[in-house]
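A reminder before we start the practical. When you read a complex entry, don't treat the lines as separate problems. The point of joint prediction is that each chain is placed relative to the others, so the output describes one connected object in space. Small molecules and nucleic acid strands, if listed, are placed in the same frame. In the example below there are two entries. Take a minute to note the order of the lines before looking further.
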Amino acid sequence: MWKLMRAEWQYSRAVLGVTGAFCLLIAAAYCLWGGSESQAGLRAFRVLVIFCVSVVWLFQIIRRQKEAVDRLHRLLPVSQVQAGLFRVLFLTGFWGILMLFFTVGRSIPGGSAGAAALGRDVAAFSGVFLMANGISLISRDHRYTALNRFWMTVVRTMIAIFLVSGYLLFMLHGALANEMGSLMPGFDTGFRSVYRSVSGSLGILSSGLLFTWLSVYVYCRRVDYKE
Amino acid sequence: MAKAFECVDVVKTYRDFQLGPLNISLEPGIVLGYIGPNGAGKTTTMHCLSGLVRAEQGRMTIFGRSNDPNSTAWKQDIGYVGDVHVFYERWTGEKNLKFISRFYDNWSDKRALELAKRFELPLQKRARDLSTGNRVKLSLVAALAHSPKLLLLDEPTAGLDPVVRAEVLDTLFEVLEDGERSIFYSTHILSDISRLADELAFIRSGTIILRTAKDDLTGRYRRITFSLEAEDLLIEHASSQEREGTTWQIVTADAGETLKELHELGAEKIQESRMTIDEIAVQILKNRSEKS
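Here is the predicted structure of the whole assembly.
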């Protein structure tokens, strides 16, 4: 798996490097000159991270479709589990590094007082990212499994529900917090109360980990790796 | 010594096609030509053996080891050149080979470079800029550079010019020189396989209809022309017959018996001629009655 990770890093470092450096530069600027208002800073960092990961994520999706990477990896002496883990962990690792910088950057102005809020935010945010990453891989793999028509419909319905009600709303809310609040006040209050609580944020993170595991599980259930 | 590969009751089903139940094996050191029309199941068989596709039933082994998707040891023993040639497109051929080399214990950079030179493969070009023929060559180099014990070749010379095709076949001959390597070779270009193969297996509609030694096949099949006044003829072992006036032409899978029969019928001007592998293959694949 580490050989695949290394190759992927070498292959994608232009995209990873440019978007990551851009994000870090802006984050550094906020830490030094814009971090006095913690709420505004938090939102801005979040938007940066969403932008950065979205670029890399889209790059991975497009490349996967154009370059038959899964097929290449299945032909090599790499076990199915390792190949499945690599697919989900590569982008997760990139996310983890960004979250580290995000956390460090936000703790400087916020100090220990904001640490708990920051921790809950990172947990919830990471959970949603893991769900999105897992879902994108599951939606790609499930059609190649031996699931019958009924279960395929169930899986596709779950993917649609998650995308529409979960991921998009969360991302929109995160990026445009005040605007969403004015449009849907009840939703905004309720939503914030969930993901800002310890149980809510840990629940979201746990869901993300579950989807991560599911993505490897579904990958290993594929009966066809031709693309 | 364990068989190079063995398929026992293997079944793979698609919406409008079923491969199998497939029972086929290959002894070490043998070249088996796999011949069939488009859609017969040749590529599906290769996909199942290489691990790209999982059969619903049956078992497959490579040198005695199950081709379990979670095991990697069996993949060290095979080199695969498939119907699609996949690489990291923005990397050069050289960089792709370097990436692939990390996964094989017996990889030889020297051998890879020698093969690339022999095939006149431009290693400094990006994979996405390679022509179809050069992509095939890069796949061949990647498949051969770690000296695998079993080569799975799915129409490897498709897209190659005659000079390179001859070079590829020469290289494959060299691979076979030590007598321990095996090749499973599917092709439409029967002139390639007639040179290389020890045995031939014919597949149609997902089922193997005949497996035989190549020399046995070319020894058995004959085209026989003769004159005979008859409206209708039923010749045992004849797989096809044509008539123009009193002149008949038949293809037979057992020349000796057929000639005896014709003499008994009073046929005249009997002439027999040998057939090429291509002609024999066409007869076999057209004729459903040939049994394995």
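Discuss with your neighbour: Chain B touches chain A through 28 residues (CB under 8 Å). What might explain this?
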